[in-house]
Amino acid sequence: MKILIAAGGTGGHLFPAERLASELGGENDVFFAGYGLKKGFFGKNYRFYEILSGPLSKFWKIGFGFIQSLWVLIKERPDVVVSFGSYHVFPVVLAAKCLHKRIVLFEANTSLGKVNRFFRKSADAIGMQYPVPGARHVLPFPWKIREEQEEIFRGEKRFTILVFGGSQGAQFLNEIFLEGVPIIDAEFDFRVIHLCGKNGSEKEIKVKYEKMGIHAHVKPFAKNMHALYSISDLAIARAGASTIAELLHYEVPALLIPYPFASEDHQKKNANYFADVGAGFFMEQKMVTANSLVSQVIALKKNLKEHRQAILDYKKKQKDLKKMAFSDLVLEVASR
C-alpha cells in the first residue's frame, strides 16, 4: 500500500504521525506532506514534501499549497491520505478530496478541530483516541513510549510533583508554581521535577529552588518522559492531547491548567474530560492564584488513591471496548 501522511506543526500532531509511520513501514510505502515539517524529524527512512499553508486568512498560501498538493498526489498516486489535522495539512486534504482519494482523519483531542470538522463528511473514516459519536474509537496514545530508565533523584523515595507546560504556555506555570512552593512546603515534604520549557530560565529557576531549600530537577524539556512519569506522584500541567493520554497511561493524577489561547479552547475540553474520568482537577488560568493552586494540590494529594483508582477503572473500561489500532483502520480503508 502507498500511504501519504499529512502532518505538521506541533508535537501533538507530529509524534502520532511518526508512530503511525513506524507501524505501517516495511511492507508499505509511507511518505509525508505538510507545512512546517522539520527536516530529519521522521528520520532518513521517509521522504517528505513541504507544502505551503497558513491560517484561512492567508488564502494565497493555501492556494499555492493546494497546487503543490495536487502535483504530489498526481505524481505519487497514494492509496490513502491520512490527516492529523491543523491548518498545516489543509491544502493536502483539500487536494485529496478534489481528486477523490480515500481519506482517513485522526483527532487526538476530545473534540474535532476545525480542519477535521471541515473534511468530516469527505472522510472514509475518522479515528479518535477518545469516544466521539460518528467516529471510530481507536487505541489511544501514548504512541511513542521510551522505556529507558534514567536516574533522576538519588536516595530514598519522596513525594514527587511533576510540573511541565508542554511546547506552549510553560511560562505561566513556571511563575505560579514557584510562587506557591513555600506554601506547599509548609504543608508537606516534597521534591520537584520541573520542565520549564525552551523559553524558561533554567538557571534562574534552579537558583530559586535552592534558596527555598527544595530538592528539584530542572530541565527545559525531557525526551524520556517515561522515567519522569514513573517516579511522579502527581502532576501540574497543561491539557494537550498527548499530555492527557500519557497521564492516564502512567496513572498519574494531575491538576490541569488548560492553555487559554489554544484553538477553539480545545485544551479546556480535554481537561474537562480528564476531570470527568476522576483522574484529577482542572482550573482555568484566569482563576489560578498561588493560593488556589496550592489548595488544589493539597486536595489532590489527600485523595491520591481515589484518583488513581478512577484512572485504573477508566483504563479497564477502555480495554474492554476492544478498540482497533489506528494503523489497522488506515490499512482497512486503503484496501477498499
Short summary of the structure?
The chain has helices spanning 11-24, 59-76, 90-98, 114-118, 170-187, 202-212, 225-231, 241-249, 266-277, 290-302, 304-320, 326-334, and strands spanning 2-6, 29-34, 48-50, 80-83, 103-107, 125-128, 136-137, 160-164, 191-195, 216-219, 234-237, 254-256, 280-282. With 336 residues, it is of the alpha/beta class. The longest helix has 18 residues, at 59-76.
What does this structure look like?
This protein is an alpha/beta fold. It has helices spanning 11-24, 59-76, 90-98, 114-118, 170-187, 202-212, 225-231, 241-249, 266-277, 290-302, 304-320, 326-334, and strands spanning 2-6, 29-34, 48-50, 80-83, 103-107, 125-128, 136-137, 160-164, 191-195, 216-219, 234-237, 254-256, 280-282. The strands form two sheets. It has a seven-stranded parallel β-sheet with strand order 3-2-1-4-5-6-7, with helices on both faces. A six-stranded parallel β-sheet has the order 10-9-8-11-12-13, sandwiched between helices.
